[in-house]
Structures are given as C-alpha cells and as structure tokens.
Design goal:
Layout: H1 2-25, H2 28-36, H3 38-43, H4 53-60
Length: about 70
C-alpha cells in the first residue's frame, strides 16, 4: 500500500514537472528574440544601460509560470 502511494506521488510530481518544463520551454523563442536584440541596444549610446533592464528582468523571471504556482512574470 505504501509503495503504491509513493508511486502515485512520484507520478504526480513527474506530471507537474513536465507541465512546468513545457511552460518554460514555450517562453524560449521570445527570450531568444529579446536576447538577439541586446547587442544593438548595448551599442546604441542613446538608450544607455537602462534599456537593458526589461530584457534582463524578463530573463530573470522566465521560471515563473502558473504551472509552478508562481504566476506569470511581471
């Protein structure tokens, strides 16, 4: 009985982890586009370092997803 319970909990955990990884993986293309634009932003002195903030914040918060209970990034 305990073995079945542990197997069930392990299966549930694996299912949740798979959903979470798929949600984060779905954000990869948009992050790649934002990162590709960084060299242009850095080389443009009119924009300065403050222009990097939103892109770097989005990268920092990419792990936040409804699937892990943390909701969408700001």
């Amino acid at each position: 009985m305990i073995t079945l319970g542990l197997l069930g909990l392990g299966g549930f955990s694996a299912w949740r982890n798979t959903r979470y990884l798929a949600a984060v993986d779905a954000q990869v293309p948009s992050m790649r586009e934002r990162l590709a634009a960084l060299p242009e932003q850095v080389q443009d002195p009119r924009q300065g370092m403050a222009a990097l903030g939103p892109t770097l914040q989005a990268l920092r918060d990419v792990w936040r997803a409804p699937e892990n209970g943390m909701g969408q990034p700001r």
